[in-house]
């Protein structure tokens, strides 16, 4: 049985895709093109409606290519009727392809996908994925023999009511993301840059964003798990000979290539989180142990006067929450691991970009001198409507601190144009800040309303042509 994996969206989705590829290979499936595949697995993104529209367009093409006599995906058409087999798994009977979807999918989109015969499973729920594939292709005798232990690859989130925000997904403490390292992945990583999630979910509820509804609230991994993943990646790369293959960037991936290491064999590890600055652990008593344990972190090198204050705070355990953040502690511990590597991280939130994080980036030699700091808008009025709890004055002060502290800083950002209520005057304020800051790169997005978000009720009053015009203006400034 052959499968095709299509990943749309951010770096976390790319990591999810790597987990899926590992699991499908473990089931004995063979990766192929979409035309040859018996099963198509999509890791979806709900950030913009255009991404969802692309999925429906591809599904229509796959259905047409499989059955030229039936291109109508209307569920009322008898040719596209679906049945449930004895296990209750929906299977589309009019063509041979099994189409599955996971990742960031809103409830409203789940319903639409189901009507098109596309089956949804939660991110990390590999047991359900296994059942879907087995039910589609019985008898599939080699599945059970190939499958790893359930405890090794199965992460099943539970669904709960989330106050006024409706249904959200959350993980219990035991449900946190399992280690996924190069030692148990086929052809991983795809390039010289390896992703390590340190947390999932988001607590910020920006009015335009669907992430809290599809990924749930923030859950941080333990430092021990993260250290183990990073050490495994370092060990994996150190054991490889020859040049590392170049990989393809994801649809909306950040570009870390501008800060390429001199050596082709140097490892780049990117810590992932919707807001890495708010990484938090409950038991800080483990931090001094991690710092002193020679099996985890080698002893701190001597002669680093510029970092002594951070080191002292770290080894004391940092009971004062204002003294040093957990994310800074994590950066310091990773910085002290042996090996020829660099650590980067995405994404940040201006409200949590504290001075100790800036100091860590400035002084720790293995931390990349790169910060992605989303602006989203240069208008305080629009920032408030977006539920972004900072002002442009506060943002510019952070930028000033970053540029003062960090030599050769590469500063990148995100901006949304055409948010409901953004007047021409509001847009000009964004233009002014873009020119003033002089970002190395900007990811400019045209606002796309998402059902279920707070901004959806504001409508979409700004014409698409005007959004395109504003996009071109900012793109010409930031991405010449």
Can you give a write-up of this model?
Helices cover 35% and strands 15% of the residues. The chain is α/β, with parallel strands linked by helices. A five-stranded parallel sheet has the order 2-1-3-6-7, with helices on both faces. A three-stranded parallel sheet has the order 10-13-14, with helices on both faces. A three-stranded parallel sheet has the order 15-16-17. The chain is globular. The model is unreliable at 67-94, 139-192, 241-265, 299-307 and 313-321 (pLDDT under 50).
Set out the fold topology:
Elements: E1 2-7, H1 11-26, E2 30-31, E3 39-44, H2 49-66, E4 82-84, E5 90-92, E6 98-103, H3 107-115, E7 119-120, H4 126-136, H5 142-146, H6 150-153, E8 158-161, E9 167-170, E10 193-197, E11 199-200, H7 211-215, E12 219-220, H8 223-239, E13 267-272, H9 286-292, H10 308-315, H11 326-335, E14 341-346, H12 355-363, E15 370-372, H13 380-385, H14 392-405, E16 410-417, H15 424-437, E17 441-446, H16 464-478
Parallel strand pairs: 1-2, 1-3, 3-6, 6-7, 10-13, 13-14, 15-16, 16-17
Antiparallel strand pairs: 4-5, 8-9, 11-12
Helix pairs in contact: 11-12, 15-16
């Amino acid at each position: 049985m052959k499968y095709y994996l299509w990943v749309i969206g951010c770096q976390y989705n790319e990591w999810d895709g790597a987990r899926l590829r590992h699991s499908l290979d473990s089931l004995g499936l063979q990766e192929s093109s979409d035309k040859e595949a018996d099963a198509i697995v999509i890791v979806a993104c709900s950030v913009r409606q255009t991404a969802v529209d692309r999925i429906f367009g591809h599904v229509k093409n796959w259905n047409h290519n499989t059955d030229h006599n039936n291109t109508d995906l209307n569920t009322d058409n008898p040719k596209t009727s679906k049945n449930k087999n004895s296990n209750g798994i929906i299977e589309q009977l009019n063509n041979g392809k099994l189409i599955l979807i996971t990742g960031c999918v809103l409830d409203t989109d789940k319903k639409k996908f189901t009507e098109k015969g596309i089956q949804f499973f939660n991110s990390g729920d590999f047991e359900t994925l296994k059942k879907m594939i087995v039910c589609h292709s019985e008898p599939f005798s080699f599945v059970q023999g190939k499958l790893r232990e359930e405890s090794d690859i199965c992460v099943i989130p539970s669904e709960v009511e989330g106050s006024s925000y409706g249904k959200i997904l959350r993980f219990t403490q035991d449900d946190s993301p399992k280690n996924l390292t190069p030692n148990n992945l086929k052809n991983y990583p795809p390039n010289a840059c390896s992703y390590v999630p340190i947390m999932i979910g988001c607590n910020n509820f920006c009015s335009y964003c669907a992430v809290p509804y599809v990924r749930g609230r923030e859950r941080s991994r333990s430092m021990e798990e993260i250290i183990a993943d990073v050490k495994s990646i370092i060990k994996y790369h150190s054991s490889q000979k020859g040049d590392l293959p170049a990989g393809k960037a994801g649809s909306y991936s950040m570009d870390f290539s501008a800060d390429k290491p001199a050596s082709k064999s140097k490892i780049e590890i990117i810590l992932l989180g919707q807001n890495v600055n708010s990484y938090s652990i409950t038991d800080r008593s483990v931090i001094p142990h991690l710092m002193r344990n020679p099996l985890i972190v080698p002893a701190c090198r001597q002669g680093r006067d510029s970092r002594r204050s951070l080191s002292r705070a770290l080894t004391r355990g940092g009971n004062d929450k204002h003294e040093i953040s957990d994310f800074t502690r994590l950066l310091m511990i990773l910085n002290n691991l042996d090996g020829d590597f660099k650590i980067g991280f995405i994404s940040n939130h201006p409200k949590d970009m504290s001075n100790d994080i800036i100091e860590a980036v400035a002084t720790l030699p293995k931390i990349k001198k790169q910060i992605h700091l989303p602006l989203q808008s240069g208008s305080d009025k629009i920032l408030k409507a977006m539920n972004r709890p900072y002002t442009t004055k506060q943002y510019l002060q952070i930028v000033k601190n970053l540029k003062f502290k960090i030599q050769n800083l590469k500063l990148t950002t995100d901006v949304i144009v055409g948010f409901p209520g953004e007047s021409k005057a509001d847009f000009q304020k964004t233009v002014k800040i873009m020119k003033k800051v002089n970002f190395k790169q900007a990811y400019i997005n045209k606002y796309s309303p998402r059902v279920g978000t707070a901004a959806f009720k504001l409508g979409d009053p700004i014409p698409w042509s005007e959004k395109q015009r504003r996009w071109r203006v900012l793109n010409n400034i930031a991405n010449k």
